């Protein structure tokens, strides 16, 4: 048998294995109640992985478990499909994440979908973090070592296990690490920007303020989503181009800029609405602490540089996911520069793969848009070194608006189309 024949057979086998996990869009199984047992079963390996990440000396077994976890995630997330066009948004957010039974102290839940990719990122981090997932101040999972905690024999003392009247401590601990996104009080979250809380932290006033925030975001989202329907071809469940070829260049780009800004504003209010809703459930019904739920964004409209926008003003819920998929591998290859480019490339691929779940195929203009953020941040640093002044103030704000609302249009068309489609397939229908 020739080498080419062997390679051909290997390619066929690899393709068949890939399509076993991720079938072609036309071969996916419509979602019914019969899919529920598969979704529940796919949670078990991941929760067990999370449990092991909070137990010392489990590094080897976590590595061995990783292929099973990833297979279960992919096999469930991409196998089943919502066939009703108005429900296609659920294909974008389809996941097999375990249900949140409560909000443990200093834990948060993601505000949105595309959780399958987030879960894979968490599984990779659980498996390859040799010491396990540590909270701030821990020397080993569940063990705090310090001047005040050290016993007379010099060994670290064990803090009280997390408790819940209806959840076993080991399961509570596992659910806590699976649901934390920004890493509040966790070692991996050190350095992540957390916006200052503007709402009162007393339970009843906090819930009242969150409810009014939810109502405001809902009304604005409804208004903006309804406004998009006035643009022919755009305000449909199939989405459409925001560039009208029948218009001359100036009106064409004026209209596209307006659509672009409406879409971005709607996306921002959608983030806030979903986050407020989950916060109300977690704090109001599940007895979570208000300190679990700091603001999800930090006034992105006030950004005066792209560095400030991405590192502080925009949400940081997926920061660790992008670091796992691209930032850490990039750092191994090319240091801090590789980490910067790797994280943004991972962000682009992350968004593109979520679109694939909607049956839209691959269009890497979105990947290019996010990948170009790296050179933009390098330009800002060079500007500071050459001029001695940081990009800031009203000129910096115009720079940010130019990048996001003008320069991003040609590369952001596919992403805008996705967002418009999601808005038109939302619960507002």
List keywords for this structure.
4 strands, globular, two-stranded parallel ribbon, 13 helices
What does this structure look like?
The chain has 429 residues and is mainly alpha-helical. The chain has two domains: 11-135 and 167-186, no CATH class; 203-424, no CATH class. Helix content is 58%, strand content 2%. It is built from 13 helices and four strands. The chain has helices spanning 3-21, 36-53, 59-77, 88-93, 115-128, 169-179, 203-228, 249-285, 306-313, 319-356, 365-371, 373-387, 393-424, and strands at residues 29-30, 80-81, 138-140, 143-144. It has a two-stranded parallel ribbon with strand order 1-2. A hairpin with a 2-residue loop joins β3 (138-140) and β4 (143-144). α2 (36-53) runs parallel beside α5 (115-128), α5 (115-128) crosses α10 and α7 (203-228) packs antiparallel against α8 (249-285). The protein is globular and about 60 Å long.
């Amino acid at each position: 048998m020739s080498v080419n024949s062997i390679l051909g057979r290997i390619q066929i086998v690899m393709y068949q294995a890939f399509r076993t996990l991720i079938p072609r869009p036309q071969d996916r199984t419509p979602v019914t109640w019969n899919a529920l047992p598969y979704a529940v079963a796919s949670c078990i390996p991941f929760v067990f992985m999370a449990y092991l990440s909070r137990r010392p000396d489990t590094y080897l077994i976590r590595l061995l478990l990783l292929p099973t976890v990833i297979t279960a995630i992919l096999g469930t997330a991409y196998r089943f499909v919502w066939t009703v066009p108005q429900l296609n948004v659920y294909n974008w957010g389809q996941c097999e994440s375990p249900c949140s039974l409560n909000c443990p102290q200093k834990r948060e839940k993601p505000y949105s979908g595309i959780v399958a990719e987030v879960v894979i990122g968490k599984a990779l981090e659980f498996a390859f973090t040799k010491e396990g997932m540590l909270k701030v101040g821990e020397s080993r999972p569940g063990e705090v070592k310090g001047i005040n905690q050290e016993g007379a024999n010099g060994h670290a003392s064990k803090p009280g296990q997390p408790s819940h009247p209806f959840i076993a401590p080991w399961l509570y601990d596992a659910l806590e690490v699976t649901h934390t996104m920004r890493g509040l009080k966790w070692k991996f979250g050190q350095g992540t920007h957390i916006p200052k809380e503007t709402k009162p932290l007393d339970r009843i006033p906090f819930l009242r303020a969150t409810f009014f925030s939810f109502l405001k975001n809902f009304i604005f989202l409804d208004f903006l989503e309804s406004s998009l329907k006035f643009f022919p071809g755009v305000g449909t469940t199939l989405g459409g181009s925001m560039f009208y070829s029948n218009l001359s260049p100036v009106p064409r780009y004026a209209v596209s800029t307006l659509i672009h800004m409406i879409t971005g504003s709607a996306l921002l209010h959608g983030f806030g609405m979903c986050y407020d809703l989950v916060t109300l459930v977690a704090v109001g019904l599940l007895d979570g602490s208000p300190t679990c739920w700091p603001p999800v964004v930090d006034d992105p409209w006030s950004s005066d540089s792209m560095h400030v926008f991405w590192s502080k003003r925009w949400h940081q819920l997926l920061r660790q996911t992008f670091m796992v998929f691209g930032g850490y591998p990039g750092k191994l290859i090319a240091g801090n520069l590789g980490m910067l480019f790797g994280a943004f490339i991972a962000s682009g691929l992350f968004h593109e793969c979520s679109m694939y779940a909607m049956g839209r195929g691959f269009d890497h203009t979105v990947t290019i848009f996010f990948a170009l953020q790296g050179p933009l941040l390098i330009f800002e640093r060079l500007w500071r070194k050459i001029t001695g002044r940081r990009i800031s103030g009203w000129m910096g704000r115009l720079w940010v608006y130019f990048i996001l609302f003008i320069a991003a249009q040609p590369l952001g068309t596919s992403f805008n189309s996705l967002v418009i489609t999601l808005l038109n397939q939302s619960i507002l229908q």
